[in-house]
Amino acid sequence: MMAVLRVFLFGIFAIFIGLLFMGIGRKVIARIQLRYGPPFYQAFIDVGKLFSRKSITHNFVMDLGMVMSLGDF
After folding, report:
1. Most buried residue among 7, 10, 27, 34 by CB atoms closer than 10 A?
2. What angle do helix axes 42-52 and 2-32 make, rounded to 10 degrees?
C-alpha cells in the first residue's frame, strides 16, 4: 500500500517539477530573445484550463477515432 502511495506521490511531484521547468525554460528563452515572456507559472494555468474544459473534441467521430486507434495494439 505504501509503495502505491509513494509511486503516486512521485508521479505528482514529477509533473509539478516538469511544469515548473517548462515555465522557467520559456522565461529563459524569452529573455534570450529580449522579451519578457510569460510568467513561470503559465504552464500550470494552461493545464488547469485544459482540464476545466467540458470536451476537447467536436463530435463523436473524433472520439470514435481515438477508440479505433487503440484497436491497433
Report:
1. 27
2. 120
